[in-house]
Structures are given as structure tokens and as C-alpha cells.
Write a structure and sequence with these properties.
Number of helices: 6
Strand order of the largest sheet: 3-4-2-1-5-6-7-13-8
Shape: globular
Structural class: alpha/beta
Helix content: 25-40%
Order of helices and strands: EHEEEHEHEHEEEEEEHEH
Number of domains: 1
CATH topology: Stationary-phase Survival Protein Sure Homolog, Chain: A
Strand content: 25-35%
Length: 251
């Protein structure tokens, strides 16, 4: 039986994580290791300033007082005798679309798994109701993942419309859309008169072309976007080299 490692960024008690576990438990041997609290927006950060605590819970899950990437790092290490065959992160409460992937702890957990040599999927529900739908999507994709041959250091970012299963129109392979800049930070005053700041919500969708993840979700389709951990803008290398050459000749 295949061995799956599940994690998330909403925390070990999140209903989306339980829904993911329940959807996959009859298809694979599962270990769940997730942050002990909500770590949304943690991105790919690792905890380097203190040791981590790994705690077994009554339901068989494990909690870690660290980030999503910490959890996956521990989960595929030699703590346990058997390594997983695959890492699945989610089900996130809310979509991870477009520029969201730069901040998402859900995507980061999957990226950490891929960086450590595991095939990986990040799955998010574009809402907060129909986790069962996202669980069925996860089960169907996990079962067929062995047949997909992605390039090295690649993973899948999956977003599911917040709809009953019967209303899902299908699956689309998409690219990331883009958001406009977010609003200004919200200044508040704490009880001692000091100014504090809330980070503002993400900006509105700015690139919603028909081939984007935004458009797929809006139309009722599951969005599947292949991502890569190599952030190099390869087609800009010659431009930067030409700029550097010109700069060196002018000095």
C-alpha cells in the first residue's frame, strides 16, 4: 500500500486536514504531521532559532510547534523507519491562486516534500464549506499521481471550487493568474496607545485570462497548475547579461 504524508498550514485541528485524511485513508497508509496552530502565510520558512517539539495526538496525528515546511522536513526524515511515497498538503481553507503561492504555507509544505525528493500536491478549497468535494478530488489525483512524470523539482497546485461534487464541471490545467497590489496596512491602536498594523487582504484579480487558475475556479472547474521550485527567469538571462556588459563598458 502506498504511504502518504499529509500536512497543512491551517493547523493540526483544521477540518480541511481531517477531510483530506478521511478521503485518503482507504486508499493508502497515512501519516499526518501538521503545525500545532494556524501558520497561514508562513511560506517556505524553516524554524532555525529553536528545537522543534513533535507531539503525538489522540487521533493519531502529530503536531509540531513550527511551520508547514518544518512538519514535512520532519515527516520525511529518519524519525520513522519508512519514508512516504508522496506528500499531500491541505485541504486549505480558501484558495491558493495566482500570487498567493508565494506566501502560502500549504504550497510550501508540498514544495518541501518535492525538494526532499517526494512527489507532491498542494490542494486548496476556494471557500470554507465543501471540503468533501476537495477530498474526492484529492483521492482521484493521488490515485493517479504515479502515472504522471513531472520534471524534477515540480509539483501540482490544485484549487477546488467551493461547490457540491455534482456541480463541479471538470478539471482544467491552468497557469497562475496575477493579483493587483494589496491595500495599505491597517493601523490600529493597542490598549497602551501604541500603533500596530494589520496586513491588508490580497489585492483584486488583475490577470484572469481564460487559461488562469482564477478563471477555472470562477467557471466551476478544478484548477491544476504545475509549479516549479526554480524561480530563475531563464528568458531574461541574456537581457541581464547585456545590461551588465554595457554597465561594465561605461565604468
Amino acid at each position: 500500500m502506498r504511504k502518504l504524508l499529509l500536512s497543512n498550514d491551517d493547523g493540526v485541528h483544521a477540518p480541511g486536514l481531517k477531510a483530506l485524511h478521511d478521503a485518503l485513508s482507504s486508499h493508502a497508509s497515512i501519516r499526518v504531521i501538521a503545525p500545532d496552530r494556524d501558520r497561514s502565510g508562513a511560506s517556505n520558512s524553516l524554524t532555525l532559532s529553536k528545537p522543534l517539539s513533535l507531539m503525538a495526538m489522540d487521533n493519531g496525528f502529530y503536531s509540531v510547534d513550527g511551520t508547514p515546511a518544518d512538519c514535512v522536513y520532519l515527516g520525511v526524515s529518519d524519525i520513522w523507519d519508512e519514508k512516504p511515497d508522496m506528500v499531500i498538503s491541505g485541504i486549505n481553507h480558501g484558495g491558493n491562486l495566482g500570487d498567493d503561492v508565494l506566501y502560502s504555507g500549504t504550497v510550501a509544505a508540498a514544495m518541501e516534500g518535492r525538494s526532499l525528493g517526494m512527489p507532491a500536491i498542494a490542494i486548496s478549497l476556494a471557500g470554507h464549506r465543501y471540503f468533501e468535494t476537495a477530498g474526492r478530488v484529492a483521492a482521484s489525483l493521488a490515485g493517479a499521481a504515479a502515472e504522471l512524470d513531472l520534471p524534477p523539482r515540480s509539483l501540482l497546485n490544485v484549487n477546488v471550487p467551493d461547490l457540491p461534487w455534482e456541480q463541479i464541471k471538470g478539471f482544467r490545467v491552468t497557469r497562475l493568474g496575477h493579483r493587483a497590489p494589496g491595500a495599505q496596512p491597517l493601523a490600529i491602536e493597542d490598549p497602551r496607545g501604541r500603533t500596530r498594523y494589520w496586513i491588508a487582504p490580497s489585492g483584486p484579480n488583475a490577470d484572469t485570462g481564460e487559461d488562469t487558475d482564477f478563471a477555472a475556479i470562477e467557471a466551476g472547474f478544478v484548477s491544476i497548475t504545475p509549479l516549479q521550485t526554480d524561480l530563475t527567469r531563464h528568458n531574461a538571462l541574456d537581457d541581464v547579461q547585456g545590461w551588465l556588459d554595457a554597465l561594465s563598458h561605461s565604468t
